[in-house]
Each structure stands twice: as structure tokens, then as C-alpha cells.
Amino acid sequence: MRQKLEEIRKNAEAALAGTSSLDELDAIRVKYLGKKGELTAVLKQMGGLSPEERPVVGQIANEIREHIQAHIDEKVAELKSAQREARLMSETIDVTLPGEECAVGHRHPLSIVLDEVKEIFQGMGFDIISGPEVELDYYNFEALNIPKDHPARDTQDTFYITDNILLRTQTSPCQIRAMEERKPPLRVISPGRVYRSDAVDATHSPLFHQIEGLVVDEGITMSDLKGTLDTLAKKLYGPETKTRFRPHHFPFTEPSCEVDVSCFKCGGKGCSMCKGEGWIEILGAGMVHPKVLQNGGIDPEKYSGFAFGLGLERLVMFRFDLDDMRMLYENDVRFLEQF
Q: Dihedrals φ, ψ of 43, to 5°?
């Protein structure tokens, strides 16, 4: 009888090892520990044992019952934990990006354009990365060559949590984090939400989305930047689109430029969208400042790079001929049903 009890224990352990569902566990419990289970069937045969053997076998049977039940309880907890984790993973969303689909079943215009931009850059070999929205002052400003007394901070007034922690004003901090975490060659874009203390109007919001780009490698020049952004413009607005680069200043790039595209509505002739100029400004860019490379742990004597920043809302407004960015946030079904 002791041998039968040991076989029941081994068989139960083997069965439990192969279970993958709660229903299977319940079936194992019934099979071995139920009123008509194998353990009960063995115990019913104890009448044939001597008075001396019965308490010993009974104790062994109880130990085996507790052993099997403990394994079942452990397996139940394990499976429930796995189910809970899988459910949480399926319900998790990236709060830094626009929603994929609005409540009425249509895709949000921000998602439509963002996916197009990501696909374009992935086609050019870029990786997509992300960074924290609650950022350290060092990554948001100082490492990007914007010290505490720099006037550029005045134009990016933001929401501070402490003296050294703030809601990021740009996705540019991802540049530094990428350089710290990866070795060249680097080719990344980092889309996400950013915050600035702006009053809400047709073209401004305290919350908006930016797409930062960074390339670092040996021998990177301004022509690589121009070629990349020219490809982006043609993919977004058509093969006839032209680009124009105007000198500008950004603390984290040198030289820096503003990038315009020929108006895709009038073809450069002049219209209400381009305000009669024939050109539309879409982004800022430049060659990564040597000091920024150093702050990212990269030798500026060996490597060079370029960076650029796109305002997603700006691209969406041009794409769909919108004149008020507030429409993108108001969740008006009449507006969203158009996409």
C-alpha cells in the first residue's frame, strides 16, 4: 500500500508539471484527491492492514494529500499570475503617443500621420525609441548645451516639479539618453508628448507631440541631413516637393537651419495655406553641437551627426488643411468621423 501511495504522489507531480490551465488543475485535484479519487480508493483498502500499520499508512496518506494540494495551490497561483500579467500587457497603452483609434472606430489624424512618419524613417533604417516625459533638467537643458542662464530657456518655459525635475519641453533629451546607451552608428527617432507653458489658441497648446531625429556616425555631413529631410518631404507630400534650408540658431546644433517645403496645395505659386509665400516651414534641424556629443559620451573628433525636430500637430494641420489645432484634442465625434 505504501508503494501505491508513492506512485500516486509521483503521478500527481508529473501531471501537475504539464498543466497549463485552471481546468486541468481542477481535473487533477478530482482525480487524485476527490471523493472517488485514487487516494481515497487506496485508503478504503486500509481495512486489510494490521492495527499497527493503519496509523502509519494514514499519516503517509495525509502527508501525500497535503503535498499534492500544496502543489496544486502553488500552480493555481502561478497560472493566475500569468493570466493577470497577460491581461495587463494586452491592456497597456503607450501614454506618450496618440491613440490608435478613436471611440467611433476611426483612426485619429495624429496617429495616421505619425504612423506614416515612422514608416518613412524605418524605411531609411531608423530605430524608434522613447524617453520619460518627466525629465531631469540636465537632460532637457544642460546636456543639450542650454545652461541655467541661457535665454533659450525663456522660450521653453515649462512645468517644474522641483528645481531639477520638469515635464520635458522637447523630445531632444532622448538624444543624450540614446548616445549614453548606444554606440555609434546611431540612427533613431523619438516621438512623444512634450509640454510648454503656452496659452491655448488655434496654433498653440501646453501639450503637443514632437518627433526628434538623431544620426551619429563617422563622416556625417550637412548633405546627409539635407538628403534625409528631402526624402521625408517627398514621401509625405509627393515627389515634386522641394525643400529649402534657411540659416537659424539652436543651442544644441551648429550650424542650424529651419527647413521649408514647397506648398503642397499651390505648388509654390502662393495661396492662403502658405500665406502667399509658396513655402511652408515644417521643422528645425542642424549638425549636432560637439559639446552635445561630448555630453552624450561620444568623441566629436571621431564622430559627427545631425538632429531634427518635427511638430506632429503642425504636420497634421498641413496634411488635412486644419486651421485650429484644438480640434485634435476636443474629441468631437463630428470631426473624428472624417478620418
A: -65, -30
Per-residue model confidence as pLDDT tens digits over 100-148? 555 555 688 899 999 999 999 999 999 999 999 999 999 999 999 888 8
As given in the structure block, the three cell numbers for residue 161 are 516639479
Residue bearing cell 564622430: 303
Question: Which pTM does this prediction carry?
Answer: 0.66
Q: How many residues does the chain have?
A: 339
229 vs 221: CA distance, rounded Å:
13
Judging by beta carbons within 10 Å of its beta carbon (0-12, 13-18, 19+), is residue 51 exposed, middle or buried?
exposed
Q: What is the CATH number of domain 109-336?
A: 3.30.930.10
Which helix (H) or strand (E) segment is 90 a member of? helix 53-91
> Tell me: the pLDDT tens digits for 168-220?
999 999 999 999 999 899 999 999 999 988 888 887 888 899 999 999 999 99
Name residue 246's beta-bridge partners: 258
Give the domain ranges of the chain.
Answer: 2-91, 109-336
**Are the C-beta atoms of residues 269 and 285 closer than 8 Å to each other?**
no
